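In the previous chapter we treated chains in isolation. Here, by contrast, the input contains two separate entities that must be folded as one system, with a combined length of 971 residues.
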Amino acid sequence: MTAVRQITVSVNGQTFERAVDPRLALVDFLRDQLGLTGTHIGCEQGVCGACTVLVDGTSVLSCLMLAVQADGSEVSTVEGLASGLELHPLQEAFWEKQGLQCGFCTPGMLMRAKEILDHDPDPTSETVREAIAGNLCRCTGYQFIVESILDAAERIRVGSNA
Amino acid sequence: MTQPAVREHTKTTNWVGKSIRRIEDPKFLKGKGGYIADHVLPSMLHAALVKSPYAHARITHIDVSEAQALPGVVAVITGGEAASLCDPLPDFGPDPSKHTWRLLAVDKVRYVGEGVVAVVAESRYVAEDAASLVVVDYEALPPIVDPEEALKPGSPLVHDALGSNVAYERTFTFGDVDAAFAEADHVFEDRLHWRRSGSQPIEPVGAIASYDTGTGMMTIWENSLSFTSYLFMLAGTLKIPSNKLDVHPVPAGGSFGSKLWAVKPAAIAGMLSKATGRPVQYMEDRHDALANNDHQGSDRIYRVKLGVKRDGTMTGLKLHAIEDYGAYIQFGLGHHGNALAQVTGPYRIAAVEYGLQAVLTNKNQQGAYRGFGSEVNNWMLERMVDLAARELGMDRREIRRKNFIQPDQFPYFIPTGNVYDSGDYELVLDKTLDLGRWEHWQAEKLRLRQEGRHIGLGLVSCQERSVFSATEFWFWFDKPGAPVTSMPESVTLDVDALGNITATLYSCAFWGNSPETMTAQLVAEEFDVDPASVSVVYAGTSQGLPATGPGGSRFTVMIAGAIEGASKKIKDKAFKIAAHQLEVSVEDLEWKDNGIEVKGSPGARKTLGEVAIMAHLFKHSLPDEIESGLEASQVHDHPYTTLPSNDRKDLGVFYPFMGHACHVAVVEVDPETGKVDFLDYAAVHDCGTMVNPRSLEGHIIGGTAQGIGTALHEEFVYDENGDFQSGTFLNYLIPTSMDVPEIKCGHHETPSPWTPYGIKGGGEGGRMMAPGAIFSAIDDALEPFGVRMRVLPATPERIVEAIEEAAGA
C-alpha cells in the first residue's frame, strides 16, 4: 500500500493537517476524518451530486476528488453555511418553501445553490433549473427547490441593500 | 368489522390545514440529519458483498484465502456459511420452501448482483479490496429472462424445487362477467407492457447491527422499520429469541417503497456482528441499490378486454396479467391486491375478471415502489379508456364523465368488494381541465399541426387508494397459511410536568414524508399548543408498540386516529384532576384553549400545564385512584376491514380511504428523435382533508416527477442473457431538473366520512397518475401517424419504432 501523505486543508475556515491514504476520497475525508457528515454519499459514480462541496469557491463532486487533491485548498461544506444559530438565507428559504423532503440531497443542493448565487445574485427560474441539473433530487420534483433558491436570492439582495 | 360511524367534520381547525414549516427540516438543513451512514459505533466494522456477475449459474468453488489474508479483514463469510449461521429471510411469498430467499446465494446464483460472499473489514475500502480478491468459480446455466418464455414447458427453472417458474396463478371473477360483456356493443382489446423501474432514493438502504455477547441482545439501527409485529421473523432469520431483537429507526434519505420492510441489509449486518462480536455496518452502495436491493417495481404484461356500449358506457373488464417477479417473491401478490383495491378506477364497471400468473425469472426481485402495483393498473385502465374513446370517436373527457361514480353513490362498493368512501370526480376533472388550459391547448395543437409540429394533450382520472389492511396479503389463497387481520399504528403522548408534550412514534416513519410535522400539527390541534413546541421521538422496538409504518399512504390517517385516541385518554385524566381542583364535576367542565374550564365561567380554569404539574408531582393532593404522570398510548387498529368471502368472489373491504386525481399533460413530440417535451402540466388531487397543503403538494409534484421518469426514461434493463444494463445513474435515468416541467397543482377536499378530520392518504399520488397522462398525450400528439403506445417506458427509441411500425402497417 502506498504511504500516507500529509495534507493541509481549510474546511469552513478551520485549518486541518492530516495524514491520509492517497486514494481517500475527499467525501470520506470530510465524513470519516473530520466528522463532517453533512456531505452525503449518494452514488459514488459522479452522477447524483449529493456530495457537492465548494473547493476554492467552485462546486466539485467530493466522491470523485481525492483528499490529496484538496491539499492547500479551502473547502466549504453545508456545516459552514449557518453563522452560529443563524441560518443562511438559503437554509431559511429552503425551510420556508419546503425545498426539501428527505433532506439527503439537500446539503449538496445548498452548496450548488450557493455557488449559483455567488455568481448570479438575481437568477431566473430557468437559469436555476439549468444550473441544478447536476444535482439529483428524488423527492421534490425540483419545483420547490427552484422556488427556494429564488427566494434565497431575494433574501440576500434585500439583506445586502439594508 | 362493521362500517365505521360517519363523522360530520363540522369543527373548525386551528392547525390542521395550515402549511406550517416542517418540524423535521432544521437538522437536515444544517447537515445534521443523522442518517444511517452518519452513525459510528466504537470498534465498528464495515461490510461489502461479492456479487454474482451471472444471471443464472451454479457456484462450483469459492476461494477466500487471499481475501482473508488481507490486513484489516476480520471475516469472510460465504453463502454456504451464511446458510448455517442464519435461516432464510422473512418471506411472504406463496410457498417460501420452494423459492427460498437467503442473505447470500447458496449453490446457485439467480440474478446479476445477487450476493455470494460477505466481507467484513476495518474500513469499507479494505472490505471492497478484499471482496475483489475472492475467487468464485461458476458454471453458467441458461438464463430465464423473458417471462412469457419462462412459462413454456421445458424452460430452464429459476428454482428447481418449485418445478416450474410459476409461483402463483389464478383467475378471479367479481360480479357477473358474462352478463357484463353480453351487454357490451364493443369489446376493445389490447396488450400492454409496463416494464420494471424502481424507487432509487438518493440514500440507499443501510443498517448497523451490534450483537451483545453478554446479554444476547441484537440491536439494529436501520433506515427501515415497518410491520414491527412481524419482526420475530427477522429474529428467526438471525437465530435469536424474538425478545432479544431491538430495531431502532433512523431518518431515511427517501424510500418511495424501497425501505418498506428492507430486511436483508439488517440481516446481513446482524449476521456479521454475531459472527465477529463487533458492531457492523452494511451500507448499500449505488450498484447494490440498483442491482441487489430486492425492491424493483412492477414488470407486467396485460392482455385486456374492455366491454363498452355504443354510447360509451363501460360494462365489464377482463384482464390477464403476467407479472415478472424476478428471482424471489418476498411480498407475495400484494402488488395485485393494491390493483384490486381500485381495479375499476373511478368508473361504474359492474364486473371484472382478473387473471394473474406470477412468474419467476433471473432478475432482482420486486419490492415496493410508490403505488405498489396499483399505479400499473391505473395506467392500463386509462390506456383502455383512451382506446375506447378513440374507437368510438368520443371525446376523452366525455367518456370519463359518462362513467364516473357520482357523488351521491358513496360509499361505493366496487366489484372486488373494496369500498370507496367518498369523492367528486367530475368536479376534479373540471378543475384540472381549467388548470391545464385544455381548450387553449386543443386550439394550439391544431394550429401548430399546420406548422408540422406535434402537440398532444393527455388526460387521466385515477384513484389513489390509501391505508391498506392485512387481508390483501392472503386473500389470494383458499387456505392461507397466515390469515392475519391486524395492521395498526401507535403513538404515545406524554405531557411532562411543565405541560410540554412529547409524541413517540414506533415505525421508521420518516422517509422524507413529514411524520413529525403531521404529528405535531395533530397534537397541536388536540391541545391548542404551537406545533413547534411538540417534541417527536422514535422508540426502538424493544420498548415499542405495534406499528406498520408509512407504506400504502397510511401514516397520516393512522397516526391521526392514534393521536385522537391517546389525546382523549390524557384529557379524560386531566378533566378528573381539574374537576378535583376546581371542586366541580367533570360534566361541568369543557376543554378550551389549552386548558379546562368550568362551562360558562371562563375565569375558573386550569391550564394543561397546571394540571400536568399536579399529575406529576402532587399525588397526595389528588383522588387516590389517580396515578401519577400524564401520558397515554393508543394502538390504532385499521378502522375498516372486512373479511373476504370463502369463494373469493368478494374480497371484502381492505383499502377504504379512496383518494382521486386528474392529471392533464401537454407534450410536444419530435417524431424524428422521439423526444418528448412538456408544454404544460396540471394535477388536481383530492386526498380528503389536507393537514399541511404545502407538504402534500410537495408529494404530488415529486410523485409526478417520478411518474415522468417511469413513463419516459427509467428502466432496469436485463439483456437477453440476463446481464444487468442499469448499474449506474448514467444508465438508470432518474429525472433531472431539466426533465421535469413546472407542475400546476390544484386541490379538492372531499373529507372521508370515516377518518379524523376526513383525512385520506396522499403519499403516492403523482406517480399513480402521470404515466397514463403522458401516454395519453403522446398518442394524441402522434395521432396523424396512427400511433398507440403500448410499452412503458416510452423511450425515444420506442416512440420512433412505434411511428415506423404504424407507417409500415
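Chain B touches chain A through 57 residues (CB under 8 Å). Residues 555-582 of chain B form the longest helix (28 residues). Compare these points with the single-chain example from earlier in the chapter.
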